Amino acid sequence: MDKRYPDKPDTVYFFGTCLVDAVYPEAGMAAIRLLQREGVRVVFPQNQSCCGQPAYNSGFPDEARAVARQQLDTFTRDYPIVVPSGSCAGMMKRHYPMLFARDRDLSRIRAFSNRIFELTEFLVHVLKVKLEDRGDPIQVTWHSSCHAAREMGVTEDSKNLVRQLKNVTLTELEKERECCGFGGTFAVKQPAISAAMVTDKIADIRGTGAGRVLSGDCGCLMNITGAMERGKVGIQGQHIAQFLWERTNG
Amino acid sequence: MGDQTFSFEKNVETALGDTQLRANFEYAMSTLYQKRKAVFADEAETERLREVGNAVRQRALSKLPELLEKLEKKCIENGIQVHWAETTDEANRIILKIMDDHRATRMVKGKSMVSEEMHLNKFLEEHGKEVMETDLGEYIIQLAGETPSHIIVPAVHKNKDQIAKLFHEKIPGAPYTEKVEELNALARKTLREKFQHADIGLSGVNMAVAETGTLCLVENEGNGRMCTTVPPVHVAVMGLEKVVEKLSDVPPVLRLLTGSATGQIITTYFNMITTPRKPGEKDGPEEVHLVILDNGRSAILKDPELRQTLQCIRCGTCLNHCPVYTRIGGHAYGFVYPGPIGKILTPQMEGLEKTGGIISASSLCNACEEVCPVKIPIPELIRRLRNESYDSKGSVPGHGYKWNLPEVLVWKAWALVNRYPRLNELAMKVGGLFGDRFPKIGPLKQWTRVRTTPRLARHSLHELVKTEGVDHE
Question: Which CATH architecture has domain B64-295?
Fold first, then answer.
């Protein structure tokens, strides 16, 4: 995977993602705090919305393009754009150039895509964060979204951040690279298959003995924690940004 | 050509409810997964090889008509008779005629997915011919009266005990045994006899080399060699995309094929068939026929994006790595080609409207794309076909069949909310007031089958950044 990282910038844009915005805003705030703590100015443009992936994956590329263009027109300055989701970052980095392949504006879109960074890779490679753990001992496991793993290639970066915390034991899943069954509209269009997948994922999570499952993607989290809650599995799910902030702040 | 009563949804429910089936698949698929991983341990080398495989297949498809003509010319020079079939029915009739011309009644068959696509066995049996599958897996499912559930390991849905029972019931005089060696011996004994008395042998083709007119056949059991050398007539069937340009294209594709399919560096047998028996030679068929089938492939070739579907070398590794296939198995898909490759190939061959929404059965996890030995962008093609399902101006058969006003309006409204910040703000505010108190209807009904309702935050991140003093231009 072709990866180039810039030097530490003064200012970054934060693209919160629609799911963080609506369901997990505290994870978004934690991510912003983590960035700010490294001395970076974070700008959150109010005109941002969704990366467009739901429509793109469901067979509505025109609608996806319209929404994607809203982001292109919003994040206009030359700052890196940090995204607390491997899936949304993958959409903006890998798929925008395909979505706009026949667009006159393609070079501008490519430049935009090159400015996209997933949160944990940005913390590791650009800000080179050093985390000091202030929390009690805890065992956690890591769930990587498929796009964080296969489109962004950031799974190791995320886990390495967790590994920096001295009181945290990270136990990996047996099938870390297997999908949790979210897949956006897949979960509601093929509910039976999706249910079978998330059930297996939860069995894998339980098998680690961890009390908490961390992820960098709120879609997966909503799927996994929703199913754990419903199945009365006493394991918490949390976005990595929130976990890192809670363990290192104060 | 699918079953009229085909319902993907029903098939899925049945498959997911069958605990034995799920156990069989999980065991077999994780074995194949591990074997592939072991043989492609060197990631950089594997990537290099996949690039070569992709280039070989793309080059072949870019000049397919020319290569097919060359293949035909070379085959004829070598003494192989070439037949062209536009439809599966034509292909079946060509083979029936070859059999009739030789007064042949007994056929032995090596493994061939194209012949499955043609439903050749059924056709020949209806015309009074005896057709015997000789690949062990195919033999098992033929005894059971089933179709392949996987393109490489067709009986993978059955475990040893189920096969033991089947053999005991279906093979005359077979004692009940669960010992693998004894089961193998039982099949071997039956099949040997069939090989000896067969009038005609049929095989598939893994690659046909245009440069030399060579038909390449990969196998592990030796039954392919028997089918192509013992009977007096050999008929090979291939999809028209299976051609490669040069002999030097064969080694990288072979390496990718066997490594991806079964985790083998090389298979036990690799047959390269170029001529019938020549004067003075002691074995080999007196006649070799090659049937080249189109069945929608040339239409797929016309679209530069969808054409990538035809790069497929039928290794089946996308099935082994697919979280959907490994849970529902091959039969649920209702057509010959299951799994990720089936999801993109079947709708293009049969028409989107006939394939019961299998195109929606993907979480777009990209596992298939990651392992495809010839780098077919399967998720991208799934997206394209999903779009075709709604697009009345599309080009794939059945395009636009799913168009419906409510769904289109939902996406239009979604786009509107996400394009106008004021609307978005309002939607978030209203949503936040509801929290998780939404009626469980529509998509939410499906979601909450095994999950709790997502709780919309009282204050969105858009609002939080303002109160928390973050720069929010």
Answer: 3-Layer(aba) Sandwich (3.40)
Closest chain A C-alpha to B1 CA, distance in angstroms: 24
CA pair distance B390, B207, nearest whole angstrom: 36
Domains and CATH numbers, chain A: 11-125 (no CATH), 138-248 (3.40.50.11810)
Pick the CATH number of B1-39+306-403 from 1.10.357, 1.10.1060, 1.10.3210, 2.70.98: 1.10.1060
Residue A1 has pLDDT above 90, yes or no: no
Domain layout of chain B by residue ranges: 1-39+306-403, 64-295, 405-468
Residue B435 in contact with partner chain A when CB distance is under 8 A: no
Chain position carrying tokens 């085909």: B6
Q: Is B470 left (phi over 0), alpha (psi -120 to 50) or beta?
A: beta
Under an 8 A CB cutoff, do B363 and A194 touch? yes
What is the pLDDT at residue A210? 98
What is the arithmetic mean of pLDDT over A41-51?
98
3-state SS, one letter per residue, for B324-382? CHHHHCCHHHCCCCCHHHHHHHHHHHHCHHHCCCHHHCCCCCCHHHHHCCCCCCHHHHH
Q: What pLDDT sits at residue B6?
A: 82
Judging by beta carbons within 10 Å of its beta carbon (0-12, 13-18, 19+), is residue A136 exposed, middle or buried? exposed
Judged by CB atoms closer than 8 Å, whether chains meet at A190 and B380 is answered as no
DSSP state of A94: I
Q: Which of residues 351-390 of B touch A (CB under 8 A)?
A: 357, 360-367, 369-370, 380, 383, 386-390
Average pLDDT value for residue range B122-150: 97
B449's tokens: 């089958």
Q: Using alpha carbons only, how large is chain A's radius of gyration in Å? A: 18
Q: For B432, which residue in chain A has the nearest alpha carbon?
A: A22
DSSP β-ladder status, A212-215 and A138-143:
parallel
Task: Residue window 453-472, chain B: list those with CB within 8 Å of chain A.
Answer: 453-457, 459-465, 468, 470-472
Give dist(CA B146, CA B130) in Å, integer.
17
User: What is the rounded distance in angstroms from the CA atom of residue A136 to the CA atom of residue B231?
Assistant: 75
Record: contact A21-B411, CB cut-off 8 A: no
Task: Write the pLDDT tens digit of every residue in B254-306.
Answer: 999 999 999 999 999 999 999 999 999 998 999 999 999 999 999 999 999 99
Spatial separation of the C-alpha atoms in residues B223 and B177, rounded to whole Å: 23
Looking at chain B from residue 299 to 338, which residues have their Cβ under 8 Å from any Cβ of chain A? 323-324, 327-328
Contact present, B388 and B396 (Cβ < 8 Å): yes
In this structure, are residues B351 and B340 in contact, taking their beta carbons and an 8 Å threshold? no
Overall residue count recorded for chain A in this entry = 250
Question: Helix and strand tally (H, E) in chain A?
Answer: 14, 8
pLDDT exceeds cutoff 50 at B1: no
- Across the beta sheet with B80-85, the strand order is B80-85, B287-293, B233-239, B200-203, B106-109, B130-133
A70–B364 C-beta distance less than 8 A: no
Determine whether the interchain pair A186/B363 forms a contact, defined as Cβ–Cβ distance below 8 Å. yes
Complex confidence, ipTM: 0.97
Distance, CA of A181 to CA of A110 (rounded, Å): 30
Rounded Cα distance between B329 and A84, Å, is: 35
Beta bridge partners of A236: A212
Read off the pTM. Answer: 0.96
Residue pLDDT, tens place only, B368-411: 999 999 999 999 999 999 999 999 999 999 999 999 999 999 99
